[in-house]
């Protein structure tokens, strides 16, 4: 039986608290004011990006994707990996405790889990995953501080899997795209036999991600109180309106996983894995 608040989530909350203290940010002072939330979050984010030599200046460029974006030393091995048509799931820190259940979900749906690795995603790797939106989508900025801290401040689990039956190939689709459309699901919207709409959704409700009344949960998944503020602020890009009112917060804290489609997969795989781990992935697919 899963404990009420998993230890990994408690650790994430504690890690977030330490970062806030590092920047002398008193959470109790900022969560009641949208302006204070934004000022504190912006200060944290700019400081972290600057410390890691990350340039977030808008450049209007999108679709920096595909194998051509992979570093040269990793390109050949990733090309060989792609010949086996794998897919990848990143179980984010707030749902790290569900990694075994997600593997069970894959197996129950006749997919093969080839390799899992646990790692803390660095802010540089996080930026590489989401460079286009971080630089060029202003509507994301109000949610970005909480999202960044949560994403980079504890362990994630990376799952590489394949389909022995090649079901999507029969539809002229890659596994990544077919799975994206059929099994990924959408945050904040229940959908049976999907990861986001079933496993993550139900666990997020169980833990209270939808109301964040528990201070440990709130500290873990919304350290700046940004999501709680956004859903009550007119004009804050309205993304949460895609679901029902009682589930608004889940549109921001209920993703639980990152699942790259076929265009994103090569670059994301290269970003998150060392050359040695890529060789392990290739070996696991050959077997």
Report on this model:
The chain is of the alpha+beta class. It has one domain (7-286). It has helices at residues 7-22, 27-30, 34-51, 72-82, 99-108, 123-129, 131-136, 144-152, 175-182, 195-207, 215-221, 226-230, 250-253, 265-272, 275-286; strands at 87-91, 112-120, 155-162, 257-258. Helix 3 (34-51) crosses helix 8 (144-152) and helix 4 runs parallel beside helix 15 (275-286). The chain is globular, with a radius of gyration of 19 Å. The protein starts with 6 loop residues before the first helix and ends with a helix. 42% of the residues are buried.
List its salient traits.
4 strands, four-stranded antiparallel beta sheet, 287 residues, alpha+beta, globular
Query: Compute the gyration radius: what is it?
Result: 19 Å
Low-confidence stretches: none
Helix count equals 15
- Total number of β-strand segments? 4
In short:
Helix content is 48%, strand content 8%. It is α+β, with helices and mostly antiparallel strands and 287 residues long. The two termini are 34 Å apart.
What's the helix and strand layout?
Layout (H helix, E strand, L loop, with lengths): L6 H16 L4 H4 L3 H18 L20 H11 L4 E5 L7 H10 L3 E9 L2 H7 L1 H6 L7 H9 L2 E8 L12 H8 L12 H13 L7 H7 L4 H5 L19 H4 L3 E2 L6 H8 L2 H12 L1
Antiparallel strand pairs: 1-3, 1-4, 2-3
């Amino acid at each position: 039986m899963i404990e009420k608040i998993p230890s990994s989530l408690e650790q994430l909350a504690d890690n977030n608290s330490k970062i806030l203290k590092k920047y002398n940010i008193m959470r109790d002072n900022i969560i009641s004011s949208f302006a204070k939330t934004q000022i504190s979050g912006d200060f944290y984010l700019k400081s972290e990006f600057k410390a890691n030599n990350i340039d977030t200046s808008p450049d209007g460029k999108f679709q920096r994707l595909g194998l051509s974006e992979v570093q040269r030393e990793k390109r050949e091995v990733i090309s060989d990996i792609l010949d086996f048509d794998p897919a990848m799931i990143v179980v984010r820190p707030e749902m790290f405790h569900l990694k075994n259940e997600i593997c069970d979900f894959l197996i129950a749906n006749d997919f093969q889990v080839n390799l899992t690795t646990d790692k803390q995603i660095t802010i540089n790797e996080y930026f590489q995953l989401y460079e286009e939106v971080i630089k060029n989508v202003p509507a994301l900025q109000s949610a970005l501080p909480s999202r960044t801290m949560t994403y980079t401040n504890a362990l994630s689990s990376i799952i590489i899997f394949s389909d022995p039956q090649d079901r999507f190939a029969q539809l002229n689709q890659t596994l990544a795209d077919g799975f994206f459309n059929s099994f990924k699901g959408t945050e904040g919207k229940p959908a049976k036999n999907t990861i986001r709409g079933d496993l993550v959704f139900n666990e997020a409700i169980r833990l209270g991600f939808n109301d964040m009344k528990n201070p440990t949960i709130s500290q873990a998944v919304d350290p700046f109180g940004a999501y709680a503020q956004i859903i009550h602020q007119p004009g804050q890009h309205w993304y949460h309106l895609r679901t029902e009112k009682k589930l608004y917060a889940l549109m921001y804290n209920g993703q639980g996983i990152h699942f790259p489609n076929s265009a994103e997969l090569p670059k994301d795989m290269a970003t998150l894995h060392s050359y040695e781990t890529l060789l392990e992935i290739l070996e696991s697919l050959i077997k």
